[in-house]
Write a structure and sequence with these properties.
The chain is α/β, with parallel strands linked by helices. Helix 18 (513-524) links the parallel strand 17 and strand 18. The longest helix is centred in the first third of the chain and has 32 residues, at 201-232. The protein is globular and about 100 Å long. It binds adenosine-5'-diphosphate and magnesium ion. The site of adenosine-5'-diphosphate (ADP) has 19 residues, from helix 10. Residues 254-257, 260, 283, 285-291, 412, 436, 540, 542, 544, 571 line the site of adenosine-5'-diphosphate.
Length: 675
Amino acid sequence: MLLSSRVAEVKGVGPALAERFEALHIRTVKDLIYFFPRKYDDFSQVTKIDDLVPGKVTIKGTVESVVGRYIKRRLHITEAIIADETSKVRAVWFNQPYRATQLAKGDEYYFSGAYDFQRNRYVLSNPATEKADSFGVSTARIVPIYRESKGLKSQQLRKVMKELLPLMDALPETLPPVLVKKFRLASVNETLKNLHFPQNTEELERAKRRTAFEELIWLITASLINKNDQAGLTGWRIDFKKPIADAFVKTLPFKMTGAQKKAAWEIFQDMESGSPMNRLVQGDVGSGKTVVGAMAAYLAAEQGYQTAFMAPTEILATQHATSIANLLEPLGVRVGLLVGSTKTAQKSQLKKKASKGDLDIIVGTHALIQGDTEFNKLGLVIIDEQHRFGVRQRSELLTKSKHMPHLLSMTATPIPRSLQLTVYGDLEVSIIDEMPKGRQPIETEVVKPAARHTVYEKIEAQIRQGRQAYVVCPLITDGINAELKSVQTEYERLNKSIFKHRQVGLLHGQMKADEKEHVMRQFKSGKLDILISTTVIEVGVDVPNATVMLIEGADRFGLAQLHQLRGRVGRGSEQSYCYLIPSGDNVSQRLRELEKSNDGFYLAEVDLKLRGPGEVYGRAQSGKLDMSFVNLADTRLIKQVRLAAAWLIQSKLSLVKYKELADKVNHYRRLTSLN
Ligand code: ADP
Ligand code: MG
């Protein structure tokens, strides 16, 4: 039998079973071998009958008698008396009539199952049984439990896996032996055998560690290769010039925080190095990332380089263009805004200017680099509210610039440290962990739907003091779920009744761009008191006078998203408030965590714990991440794998020789750099 053989060729796998495997995407013997148990039941301890206590037990005994009968029309019971040298015990099985013929009087078996109180006495109920002198898969061992599906039970899978043990034993090593030895890893053979049929807990742990090691080395090697590739490219050299930096700082209406200065300094050093920068600035909502980006763009502009500044939405791009222009135009920098709703004539004029070099900073959405915009000398690309540039984005950039431009991404959704060491290893990271002076933490409170009116009173109180409010709803129009608030109905309702004496605005993604912009401008200028909105205001929108936010259907949003939304308030020096109303009376842990903390870094770690790396990562990247065995908190293992990966890259031969390893690494290289 070969790894590539179809599952139907395995002994005991008939067409029906093969079909069920197919449904789980298990087609070859290899797929089957790599279908690992979901968990284990430890039945390895064999107990003397005399010593039995209720719970999961295993005994080894001889069958003294066994009889089966119907006690009701549909209830069959098999009873056996089992004896060992200490005592006797009764075993019962319900609706398993074959047990009576399976068990032979006088033969010795292992019985693993629950010992509990039933029908007035202690019995072994529904135990698995296997001949004492055979290789057992369901008794007297650590028993593997597989992910079961209709018509596919663990019991069956164990039998099939048992047939594959000889093959597991014969598989060639998938990692270079040097690594196996140096990091004291279990061999691939031991690993596979022990994952399915652990000899003992230690061996199981070793097998899990090796598997985690292997999952990590694919990922980390991939990200290190990506990083080396990037460093090998020639970039523009943009020098740090103190007078330029000083001029910038002088025009600011505030003093930069220490963390902002540090991030800026790290960026300048990258830009000066001659290889293209690939840096992510992480800073909580409101920490002032835009200024840092603007400063880098100014430094570039003063030396004749253009900057493309991209935001995820038109609203945000428009806002950035305004604040960057306010900041830099007095210094002689030429700023242009190029978005989908820009009028055609104006668009072509802007594009002409960009290609001639008559614009220094072009602000827009992602269409900026995907479209036909040409640049004269593109030195820096800034991408807001994204974790990293994808490979496609990067190659597109190369068609727009002689050299790879410096790349700067900025996000308020921090990457948990563990993911940074693994999945995002190709990125340099700057952290802005200090808020501008005078900011007060946002007071957050979960409010039950029945108490909604109390929130309206608080909103009214804020408006009376001259402040503004957001009301965020999960849907645009009323849907099937009556519990969920839609912006449309909320807008009608609030505008006509509770807040009819106030100016209420409506904003959602299906509105035309100029309508959206109009509403945003009205809200910004204070003409609107309340903005009823969907999550289009999620990222970046900056209206410091807004001090209160109500989030309807709060349980429908993710932790990171709620934190982002909440970040729309608390941007000025006034105390701000955020009220979370779930759609039902249940309050999830997510909401409780938000109530407790304003710290995006802490919340990102909580999110990782609550949802797991696959989910957290999957939201940011498309594609599956195989990390079923990796415990991202195991920094020691991650460290070891980083060493191993560095070695692997140096000894290029290994990657050629171990084709499977190379394939996995290549797969992850594509996966981890795609957005
Ligand atoms: P984010 O990091 O969420 O993108 P912004 O760049 O939008 O934050 O900045 C939020 C607000 O804080 C803006 O109004 C900005 O002008 C202001 N700001 C930035 N840096 C400082 C600072 N050092 N001191 C005071 N206000 C600042
Ligand atoms: Mg921002």
